[in-house]
Amino acid sequence: MNRNSARIPVIAIDGPSGSGKGTIARRVAAVLGMHLLDSGALYRLVALSVSRQGKSGGTAAELAKIAATMNVRFGIDAAGDEEIWLDGDEVSGAVRTEECGRLASEVAAIPAVREALLALQQSFRKAPGLVADGRDMGTTVFPDATLKIFLTAGAEERARRRHKQLKDKGIDVSLAALSRDIEDRDRRDSERSVAPLRPAADARLLDSSNLTINEVTRTILDWVESIELRE
Ligand code: DC
């Protein structure tokens, strides 16, 4: 990171699966006219790359090489929906499956993979600012972020939200299986030795269990207003 990019504001939104980070980060970025980093998508893309190469895994070095060399592009289609391109293919549907999320959580526990994705994540820090969504945005990737938020919600509520999201997409998964999956992923993401899921010491905690998307967005925008985002 050079001196100039260090001045560009970053709003780090970290938290567990299903806390609503993705939706909230997208809204906050849109309102503020800032760039968006969906760091979870990068781990999902590594996982997808691995499975597309017909492998069930690989050595840490092989996985890190995939992370360092995959060609990734984020965009928006004509209808305003997210597009994610991996090595020339549009994969936005494939990266959002539960299976890909599970694999992503496994590759994300490998230090060499995290290291390989660090510079790529930091390269999203561009003027006028960045909203970064993930698990370690405030602790590791952008430790100097202007505003750090740790967004959470009870495990049951998170499973319920995810269930509804999948149902809306026509995907039928049992709520009990989803709850188990979410608990497993929470455990893996929180207990790994490198960049575990935990709030930064200077993060503001926000529990969205009983809040609407609008209420969470409003709270964050109020916080943004209350601090000086630019040097
Ligand atoms: O947010 P998500 O569900 O798309 O993330 C997929 C997995 O990637 C998640 O289980 C943990 C991992 N991840 C991570 O370790 N660090 C990040 N900054 C973002 C995601």
Structure description:
This protein is α/β, with parallel strands linked by helices and 231 residues long. The protein has a single domain (9-218), classed as P-loop containing nucleotide triphosphate hydrolases (Rossmann fold). The chain contains eleven helices and eight strands. It has helices at residues 3-7, 21-32, 39-52, 60-69, 92-95, 98-107, 111-122, 137-141, 155-168, 175-191, 213-226; strands at residues 10-14, 35-38, 72-76, 82-86, 89-90, 130-134, 147-152, 204-207. The strands form two sheets. The chain has a five-stranded parallel β-sheet with strand order 2-6-1-7-8. Strand 3 and strand 4 (82-86) form a beta hairpin. Helix 2 packs across helix 11 and helix 3 (39-52) crosses helix 6 (98-107). The longest helix has 17 residues, at 175-191. The chain is globular. The two termini are 17 Å apart. The site of 2'-deoxycytidine-5'-monophosphate has 15 residues, from helix 3, helix 6 and helix 10.
Give short descriptive properties of this protein:
11 helices, 3-stranded antiparallel sheet, single chain, 231 residues, 16% strand, binds 2'-deoxycytidine-5'-monophosphate, alpha/beta, 5-stranded parallel sheet, Rossmann fold
SSE diagram, text form:
Layout: H1 3-7, E1 10-14, H2 21-32, E2 35-38, H3 39-52, H4 60-69, E3 72-76, E4 82-86, E5 89-90, H5 92-95, H6 98-107, H7 111-122, E6 130-134, H8 137-141, E7 147-152, H9 155-168, H10 175-191, E8 204-207, H11 213-226
Parallel strand pairs: 1-6, 1-7, 2-6, 7-8
Antiparallel strand pairs: 3-4, 4-5
This protein binds 2'-deoxycytidine-5'-monophosphate (DC).
